[in-house]
Amino acid sequence: MVKLDPTRLKDWEIAEAAQERMKTVYQLAEEMNLDKMELFPYGHHVGKLDYMSILRRLKDKPNGKYIEVTAITPTPLGEGKSTTTMGLIEGLGKIGKQVMGAIRQPSGGPTFNIKGSAAGGGLAQCIPLTDFSLGLTGDIDAITNAHNLAMVALTSRIQHEFNYSDAVLAKKKLKRLDIDPRNISMHWAMDFCAQALREIVIGLGGKMDGFTMESGFQITVSSEIMAILSVATSLEDMRRRMGKIVVAYDTSGRPVTTADLEVDGAMTALMAKAINPNLLQTLEGQPVLVHAGPFANIAIGQSSIIADLLGLKLADYHVTESGFGADIGFEKFWNLKCRFSGLVPSCSVLVCTVRALKMHGGGPRVAPGQPLDASYTAENLSLVEAGLPNLLAHIETIRQSGIPPVVCINHFHTDTKEEIRLIRKAAESAGAVVAVSSHWLAGGDGARELADAVAQVCDGDEDPEFRFLYEENASLSERIDRIARRVYGAEAVSYTPQAEDKLKGIEEDATGTLSKLGTCMVKTHLSLSHDPTVKGRPTGWTLPIRDILRYDGAGFVVPVAGAIKLMPGTCSDPAFRNIDINVQTGKVKGLF
């Protein structure tokens, strides 16, 4: 077998070449000791797992070690968080550990736009890449359809209530809901970046063509149904949550839910298969569960709780990844996912690179497709040192949770020993274990140091002294303030009049249900602050809360900081320009 060389081959070429030695999904299931009927094959190399049967069968088996992967604040240079996740899984396999992983399913928006499919890279990838990147087993399509079915129910109900009297509605067995068409809380969904559909008008035409009103689209991964898939612990839990989705408000300001529209059952039926996690593998044959795909800047940013529950029963070490930096992905993992699941991690891996720290230290602007400035490829200790506060801020965030941090220096050949020594000294002084890993270049062999460090922390004598950032009975304003100050480093929080009114309504809710919802912040991932242009570790700034949304089904209130859109835009040089298919073999090329 010829060794795959990531310095000469593109990621999609490595993934394609690796297919000849890929395990079948049946081999994976056998190695995982699954019963035959617990696997639902989707071809030879992808399957779904019957989570209910597996968890029932293994209910008395102790959980394995739970490992979370996060990163410093992202830059255009890339930190390699997904690559590190795959490399760590491969590395743990190399040192003889029984290991599994769980990652999010990529959205079609980034896959066809700028970011790519997030399968990892080099010799640390999740495969098969084409299946992983292009729809997988249809989970995102199911979410899109379930979401849009709610919008169909809502808009048709508005039309019927507008056109018919109470007597006619009664004959049609419909109760008037008095929906306010100016106060709709959902948009239509599609899984592409389509800025032209952010704001639209629907219902143009005659009386039978719908009610004329403003509307729009959001990307599917921002749908509350995607968040529900991420946090649900069973089909029963999903069904209960589905009926709580607030789609609009009536003319008196009361919420109108999917249950009010009697569409929640059908929505859950569309999701019945999607609740089972998807089974793929690393380049080196370790099993990887791919399930749920919410962004972290506009959603919870986690793969599913169900996938983690399975991984912890099926392996001795289970690695899960959170979206973007520790200020966003880890914070939501810590205070939302762990709260909902009841699971406590053994350690958190914080990924950084020398190059990214240089950018946080004031390095020159990086433009996609343009050559890197020499400061990123030659030794520059002053830039690395200036960027270290960003790394230290994220270490402090992890340590607040009581979870031991392991800093992974994702190694590039241009990194120098002195640059690595500088990072290691600072991170260890801040209370982190540090490991250098070259998994992109060498796969599991390159990740042995990282795997050893993680295993040593996980297998230590002391359990983590885990604690949440805020108590469940803390007010929403207290939660926002604590996240802003202790995670983002803000000096204060400000509110628009609209956000202030919503905050007051939630905190004064007589039922007490709104105050018990989790707090899922919406903020740019490109900075610790709300301003994506500010790098490093900004100080002396105020976090502006522009709006507060309700995701009753998912169990969140969603404070929105800064100008964040739920429908991204497609760039001028999108990735879809490079994707094509060999019409003779049917193989896809150009994915990254």
Can you give keywords for this protein?
592 residues; alpha/beta; Rossmann fold; Domain 2, N(10)-formyltetrahydrofolate synthetase; Formyltetrahydrofolate synthetase, domain 3; 3 domains; 4-stranded mixed β-sheet; 20 helices; globular
Notes on the structure:
With 592 residues, the chain is an alpha/beta fold. It folds into three domains: 23-138 and 274-366 and 379-458, Rossmann fold; 144-268, Domain 2, N(10)-formyltetrahydrofolate synthetase, CATH 3.30.1510; 478-561, Formyltetrahydrofolate synthetase, domain 3 (Roll), CATH 3.10.410.10. The chain contains 20 helices and 25 strands. The strands form six sheets. Strands 1, 2, 3, 4, 5, 6, 14, 15, 16, 17, 18 and 19 form a twelve-stranded mixed sheet that branches. Strand 14 and strand 15 (287-290) form a beta hairpin. The model has no long low-confidence stretch (mean pLDDT 94).
